[in-house]
Write a structure and sequence with these properties.
One of its GO terms (molecular function) is malate dehydrogenase activity. The protein is α/β, with parallel strands linked by helices. It has two domains: 153 residues, Rossmann fold (3-Layer(aba) Sandwich), CATH 3.40.50.720; 165 residues, Lactate dehydrogenase/glycoside hydrolase, family 4, C-terminal (L-2-Hydroxyisocaproate Dehydrogenase, Chain A, domain 2), CATH 3.90.110.10. Helix content is 41%, strand content 19%. The protein contains nine helices and 14 strands. α4 packs parallel to α5 and α6 packs across α7. The longest helix is centred in the C-terminal third of the chain and has 23 residues. It is globular.
Amino acid sequence: MKNSVRVAISGAAGRIANNLLFSIASGQLLGDQQPISLSLLETPARLSMLNGIAMELHDGVFPLLAGVEVSDDPWQAFEGADYVFLISSPLDSLATASKTADARMEQHGNTFALHGKALNDVASRDVKILVISNPVMINALMVQRNAPDLNSSCISALMRLDHNRAHALLAHKAGASLADVRKVIVWGNHSSTQYPDFYHATIGGVRVDALLENDWLHQVSIGLVRQRGYAVIDAYGGLRAASSAAKAAIDHMRDWIFGTRDGDWTSMGVLSDGSYGIPSGIFFGFPVVADGGQVNIVQGLQICPERLEKIHHSADEIYRRCQQFNLL
């Protein structure tokens, strides 16, 4: 049996984490031959709940689960971490969001700055850190700015939920198998400015513009993907998506570790190098390929001025927010 690896999760008492933890313990992240130790981080006020989750993990008798630790100290929780999912302690329901957006963002920023410092001090030097909580691109940059000793390639931001939504929507519209859909992109931010892009997508090797009407592909679908999260919230009576977000986090991390499938890419928030005119130094959702644990932005895509304007609109939103919080 292999030596165990250490997986740390912040905001571990929340709904996303609750779905994520049991999937990881069952081997869905690293496979059925890799033992794992879980390190769970929460605020002091939620430690009692977290202890209950730890009990359930133990009672689940997961063969791969080598241990579970619970803490409210990020330096303890992130010690030697190989893989980290940063969910903070977000509000599960919009109905409980009494603070202004800026106040919530400032609170999150302080949390992610602290987490960045702890990760910088104690995590594995090859750690893979996935930031999940919104505003996800700002939070990822906050971590990166506070972890100067970690390579920026160790940090990424979740766009996979939006990518998966676009992928599933396209398959459903075409009446096709999910496995046959390739080269979907969701550019930009996890917000209403994101740009779902089917221009390069194929189904069974055939370009989708030969299979579906242009208006749906390049107009209607954009709104459907952008609004999907709000549709879920409405259906749940105010609760945010949790199961699909946890699945997206695992999909993101698995592609990062094991590589994207041949002939395909995924959407991932990574630090911009200036590709496609996106300002360097901000985190942004790009099409990427992964291989051997390394992620590279797909280069050379033909993008017309109209589509590029939509992509840059999302970049402008992120850039302004970064400036607002003195991150640039």
